[in-house]
Amino acid sequence: MHPEPYLAPVLHMTICWPLLQCISCNVAALPQTSDAFDTGCTLARECVIETMSQTSAPPALFDQIALMRNRARARNMDKRHSFLKAEIADRLFERLQEVNRDFPACADLGGTFAPFLPAAAQTNYTSVAQEGPSLQLAPASQNLIVSNLGMHWINDLPGLLVQIRGALMPDGLFTASLFGGQTLHELRHAFLTAEAEVTGGANARIIPFADVKDLGSLLQRAGFALPVTDVDTLTLTYAHPINLMQELRGMGEANALLGRSRKFLRRDVLMRTCEIYGEQFGMADGRIPATFEVIYMTGWHPHESQQKPLKPGSGDINLAEALKAGKPPGK
Q1: Which pLDDT belongs to residue 248?
Q2: pLDDT in the model for residue 29
Q3: Cα dihedral sign for 321, 322, 323, 327?
C-alpha cells in the first residue's frame, strides 16, 4: 500500500498510428544540450543493431528475475494501479465477443486477462506463465490464446510467437495487447535530458518498445494467417511525475532492463527530471500527461477454411479499363 493516498489519473483516449519508436539503452557521456534525447536514441539504436549483428540469437534486454520481483511487489500494492490493465482487458474482451465462434480451450498468457473479466467468463481461461523462454502449452491444444499487456517484456518475441502458433489448434485464434513505441516518451525524454544535464551521462530508465509495423511483420514470419495489428493511444494525466512513477511500480512496470544502473537514482537527477517534465509537457491545470501506446495483435492458425487472396491475374475486370471509364465495365 502507498504511504500517501492513491491519486487516480485521468484518462484521455485517441486513436492514431505511431511515429518512429525511440529505443532507450545505456548511453554514456551524452552532450548537455537540448539534442540529448535524440542523440541517446540514435546511439541506442546503433547499440542494439551492433549487438544483433554479432550473434544469431536475439540479444537479451530484460532481467527476468527483476521482472518477477517487480510483479510480485506490485501484487502487494494498491489494486487500483491495475486499472489500465483492466481497461485494456475489457477492450480485448469486447473484440473477442465480436468473433462469431466458441473457444472451448482458452489460455491466458501471463494471467493478466481473465482476472478482469466478468466472473462467468473467467472460468473459461487457464492461466499460463509467461516469464520463461518456453511456452508451457502442449502443441495444438488451444482454441484461443490471449496476452494482456505483458509481451513487451519478452526477450525473444519472434520465438514466443512461433510457440504460440504451434500451441493453437487449426483455425485457432491468438490476440494480444502490449505497449508500443510512443509509450512514456515524455518520461523517457525528461530522464535522458535531466541526467545528461546533471551528471553528463545517462542510464537506461525506460525499456524499448516495439513498433506496430514490426509486430505485423513478426506475425507473418511466425506463420499466422490473416494477421492484423492496430493501435490505441491513451493519455493519462497525473498530479505530479512522482505519481506516475509510483503508478508504474504498482503496475509491475518498473525498470527491469539488464543494462540498468544498479545505483540508486540521485535525488538531484530525480528533481530535475520532474522539473523538465512539468516545464516541457505540463498542462494548463498543473497536471502532467503520460502517453501509453497500446498495440493490438491478432492472428489465426492457418486452416483451409480461411479466406485467401486471389492469385494475380485471376480477376474478371481490368483495373485500367475501370479507372478509365469511371465505372466498372459490364461483363
Answers
A1: 96
A2: 35
A3: positive
Asked whether residue 315 is domain-assigned, the answer is: no
Burial 234-258 (b: 16+ CB within 10 A, else e): bbbbbeebebbbbbbbbbbbbbbbe
Chain position carrying cell 491545470: 285
Q: Count the helix, strand and coil residues of the chain and give each as a percent rounded to the nearest 5.
A: 40, 20, 40
- Phi/psi for 229 (5° steps) reads -130, 140
- Answer whether residue 311 is part of any domain: no
* CATH code for position 68: 3.40.50.150
Q: pLDDT tens digits, residue range 248-279? A: 999 999 999 999 988 889 999 999 999 999 99
Integer Cα distance of 212 and 18 in angstroms: 7
Cell of 169: 489448434
Question: C-alpha grid cell for residue 36?
Answer: 540529448
The interaxial angle of helices 241-250 and 185-199, nearest 10 deg, is 120
Q: What is the pLDDT of residues 73-90, one digit of tens each?
A: 999 999 999 999 999 999
Whether the CB-CB separation of 155 and 276 falls below 8 Å is answered with no
Domain count, the chain: 1
Name which of 206, 205, 207 is nearest 266 in CA terms: 205
Question: What range does the domain containing 75 cover?
Answer: 10-302
**β-strand 106-109 against 142-148: which pairing, if any?**
parallel
Within-domain flag for 326: no
